[in-house]
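Figure 2 data, in text form.
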Amino acid sequence: MRVSNVKVSDLEESIKASKYPMSISPDSCTTEITNTAKALAQSGKGEGHDQFLTGITVSFDLQCSNKMWVEMERYRFVSFVSSQSTMHRITRFNIREQCNGYVDDVIIKRLEELQEEAIADPANEEKRLKLLYNIPSGFELTARLTTNYRALKTVYAQRHNHRLPEWRAFCKFIELLPEAKNLIVPKKEQEQEKGN
């Protein structure tokens, strides 16, 4: 799992907006992360007090396994901007380089054979489909994604101790985002980490 090309937008603007509900003069609201802003961000699931986190957008490139992509799409916390395509490029990928370290060498070799067969007979749809349907869960692809701090708060709560190492690594990425300790990572998790 690898994250690159990260861009965080509207952090200060959303912090300022978090103060609007209690303000009679929005122009006087500051971008300072106050204890109130922290408390709003740390509010419980479904309370709605953390809505301002939706305005803090995060865009990034993520390279991860098919296994992680399937789970990610299930939770619908990201918008896909664009991604690599096995449909368009399966015969051009370097299979060995696209597979992570958990894919057995026997599987990689067989996939390379299927790729050679599809390349040798490009008009044969069956050979192409056989190659596509045998791609392992450890085959890695890259996509450009957009999400927001509120969605990442939920992901972190659900996935920071996940059995799939890619999710734990993704949560480490979340922790590194600007002001993540104040706005995304639950205080109880931070306290547990200090205790270890």
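Caption note: The mean pLDDT is 94.
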